[in-house]
Design the sequence.
């Protein structure tokens, strides 16, 4: 029996004991200021509380809920308490009433209310009769509240499960879209959207219930509008009726769309910053109860995590790409090094002094200033004057400025010009000693910004008179500063190139150190995550549910994928700089095959594929790097298994005739599959790092695009040859041909 049915049954029983014309069971709303008529039995022609919802304050029911005691009113016409209740009762002709609290564990869950058209119907006796009935009702109400709570929790859990599955799929935009759909469904609102604050703009990332074009996505400025309010106050904003809300920042768009109910909650980053806003909007005015606000906040928290995950993932990917391009650049530099050396030995470009002097002279004359000083930040944290012009500047030539305070530091840190009419009036920095020594008053400073957008120095001009620099003059100073920055950067670059071999050697070292550190930096927290995840999984922190267990296992899988991605990047980088030694040993093809078979068979079996090894006759023992060949074949076979859904994967090993020139015998290893195949257009780029063939379903065939690039470099290292043949939809064959015997102990 549900609560409604219990109420109905009890109402009939009560009528036999205590007569009434209206019986109501009232429950407080979650929002403590309201009481809802939950069940009602009435013979009156009109409803006592037509809206079914009443404010709590000033009513008899409110008093009962607050004081946990019954109230008896013998005649509403002669009772001055509870004017609101009595006005309503008079309106429908009710004269007397009794209200009892429904109590559980010291809390009032609701009230039982009996009223009659006749005066003086209720007294002490009726209260005594009704008390045990109220107790039964209390139990029923309590049960139903618990039940509803459990049901709601279950619903929420289901929802979160659904959403968290999507979180790992990382397609953030469809996830956010789905989230807004769920918000509409659960909160029964017409429109929902999620906006994210990115690079100084609000970007609409997901919307449902309305055409996204109707919602302007990017209003600049964080402090504007209601979203600005949320950023500032860091909490949800509820507006039951936007049409009648004047105190809050305007919401023209909302109003012009005819939307009235408004609920918005912040998305917090891990660092606690507000990074976005999730909104629920309705065409009709309505209240949002605290539970609904909480729910939306929880959904927003989930969305924030998903957004951050996606960002992290992108960062890792772009880091990898960055590394890749550093590699290419360094390799190119190495190749061009000797050519460049010749060119640069002729010209003395490192001597940037004259160029810079020319620039400061220009600053002095074009800006009609009395002094111009160009300072560069030295590695020791001082600002050193590298070029000066003007009267008396030699006095400050050797004086160092300390980086970390003062105007110059401000300019460099903010990467903005600073113009001051009279430094003696400057309340922030005051007249600095060096400028005072020059007798300066008017001041303009602009930063020197490098291509990497770092401030490398500062150009200042000053005048002995007060001076207001115009916009044009400031722009001109910036141009001169940027010319100076380019000159300095070029000079530094040339210097770098001139220092050639040794420096490149250093760069390689630094790069591998950087790679190792980066890998370490990335791997350490990942290992910590796995460690914590294991502890949680082993219930070291307390019992966990099946769902939590699944989530933890998902975390582990994802982290392990990341770890192996990092390892692959590292390996690729090492191969790239040919820093990998070879370990030559003697072994037979059979020995090699055994290892491969045991590691790949389970995978093939799981997919129902046949895995075959065919070894040609007469292959002598090989003399080569066994583990590298094994890695090559592992990669090719694993791909073949991954990209094949039915049929077989086969490795054929055969001896090739000795090369007529070198007389070196070769072995060819051919991995053939009956899988999805590779388009002709993809083949040229297949061996590039991170390249993944187009049009392949990456949910079904996930990857990193690194395997084949590692294979290619390993094959090059072993002085072999790699070929691919394929037909889309039919299968692929990767053939590696390697020398039978390797003589070098070291890679080139
Ligand atoms: P990954 O498999 O991790 O994406 P690889 O560098 O090993 O990276 O492969 C690059 C791409 O080449 C793959 O993404 C896939 O599209 C394609 N590919 C590699 N091997 C096969 C194969 N045996 N059959 C079909 N496509 C393949």
Sequence:
């Amino acid at each position: 029996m549900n609560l409604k049915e219990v109420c109905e049954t009890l109402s009939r029983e009560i009528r036999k004991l205590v007569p009434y014309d209206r019986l109501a069971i009232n429950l407080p709303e979650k929002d403590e200021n309201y009481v809802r008529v939950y069940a009602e039995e009435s013979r009156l022609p009109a409803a006592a509380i037509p809206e079914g919802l009443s404010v709590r304050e000033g009513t008899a029911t409110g008093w009962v809920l607050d004081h946990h005691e019954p109230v008896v009113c013998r005649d509403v016409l002669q009772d001055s308490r509870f004017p609101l209740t009595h006005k309503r009762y008079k309106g429908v002709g009710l004269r007397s009433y009794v209200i009892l609290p429904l109590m559980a564990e010291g809390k009032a869950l609701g009230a039982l209310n009996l009223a009659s058209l006749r005066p003086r119907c209720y007294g002490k006796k009726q209260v005594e009769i009704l008390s045990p009935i109220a107790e039964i009702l209390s139990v029923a109400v309590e049960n139903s509240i618990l039940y509803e709570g459990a049901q709601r929790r279950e619903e929420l859990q289901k929802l979160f499960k659904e959403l968290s599955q999507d979180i790992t799929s990382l397609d953030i935009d469809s996830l956010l879209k789905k989230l807004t759909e769920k918000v509409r469904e659960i909160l029964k609102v017409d429109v929902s959207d999620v906006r994210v604050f990115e690079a100084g703009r609000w970007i609409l990332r997901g919307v449902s219930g309305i055409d996204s074009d109707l919602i302007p996505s990017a209003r600049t400025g964080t402090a504007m509008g209601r979203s600005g309010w949320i950023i500032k106050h860091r909490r949800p904003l509820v507006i039951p009726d936007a049409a009648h809300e004047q105190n809050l920042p305007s919401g023209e768009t909302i109003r012009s769309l005819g939307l009235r109910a408004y609920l918005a909650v912040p998305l917090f980053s891990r660092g606690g910053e507000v990074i976005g806003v999730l909104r629920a909007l309705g065409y009709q005015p309505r209240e949002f109860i605290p539970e609904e606000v909480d729910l939306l906040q929880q959904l927003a928290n989930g969305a924030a995590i998903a957004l951050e995950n996606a960002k992290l993932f992108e960062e890792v990917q772009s880091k990898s790409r960055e590394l890749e391009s550093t590699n290419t650049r360094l390799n190119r530099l190495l190749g061009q090094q000797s050519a460049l050396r010749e060119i640069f030995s002729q010209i003395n470009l490192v001597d940037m002094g004259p160029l810079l002097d020319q620039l400061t002279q220009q600053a002095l004359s074009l800006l009609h200033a009395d002094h111009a000083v160009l300072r560069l930040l030295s590695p020791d944290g001082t600002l050193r004057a590298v070029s000066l012009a003007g009267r008396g500047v030699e006095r400050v030539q050797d004086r160092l400025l300390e980086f970390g305070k003062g105007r110059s530091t401000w300019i460099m840190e903010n990467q903005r010009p600073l113009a001051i009419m009279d430094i003696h009036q400057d309340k922030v920095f005051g007249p600095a000693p060096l400028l005072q020594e020059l007798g300066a008053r008017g001041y303009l400073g602009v930063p020197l910004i490098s291509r990497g957008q770092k401030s490398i120095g500062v150009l200042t001009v000053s005048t002995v008179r007060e001076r207001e620099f115009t916009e044009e003059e400031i722009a001109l100073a910036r141009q001169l500063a940027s010319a100076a920055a380019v000159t300095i950067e070029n000079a530094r670059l040339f210097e770098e190139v001139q220092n050639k071999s040794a420096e490149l050697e250093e760069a390689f070292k630094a790069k591998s150190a950087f790679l190792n550190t980066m890998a370490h930096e990335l791997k350490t927290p990942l290992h910590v995550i796995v460690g914590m995840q294991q502890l949680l999984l082993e219930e070291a922190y307390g019992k966990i549910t099946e769902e939590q267990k699944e989530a933890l296992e998902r975390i582990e899988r994802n982290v392990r994928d990341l770890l192996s991605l990092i390892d692959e990047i590292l390996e690729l980088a090492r191969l790239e700089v040919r820093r990998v030694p070879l370990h030559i040993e003697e072994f037979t093809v059979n020995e090699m095959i055994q290892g491969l078979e045991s590691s790949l068979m389970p995978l093939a079996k799981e997919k129902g594929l046949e895995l075959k090894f065919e070894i040609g006759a007469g292959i002598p023992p090989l003399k080569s790097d066994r583990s590298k060949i094994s890695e090559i074949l592992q990669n090719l076979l694993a791909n073949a298994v991954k990209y094949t859904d039915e049929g077989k994967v086969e490795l054929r090993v055969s001896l090739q005739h000795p090369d007529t020139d070198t007389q070196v015998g070769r072995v060819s290893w051919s991995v053939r599959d009956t899988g999805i195949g590779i388009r002709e257009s993809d083949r040229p780029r297949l061996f590039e790092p991170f390249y993944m063939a187009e049009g392949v379903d990456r949910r079904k065939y996930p990857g990193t695009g690194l395997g084949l690039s590692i294979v290619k470099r390993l094959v090059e290292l072993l002085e072999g040859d790699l070929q691919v043949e394929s037909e889309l939809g039919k299968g692929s064959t990767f053939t590696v041909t390697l020398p039978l015997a390797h003589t070098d102990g070291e890679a080139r």
Remarks:
- The radius of gyration is 39 Å.
- Residues 25 and 738 are 88 Å apart (CA to CA).
- The pocket of adenosine-5'-diphosphate is lined by residues 639-640, 643, 673, 675-678, 686, 691-693, 696, 703-709, 732 (CB under 6 Å).
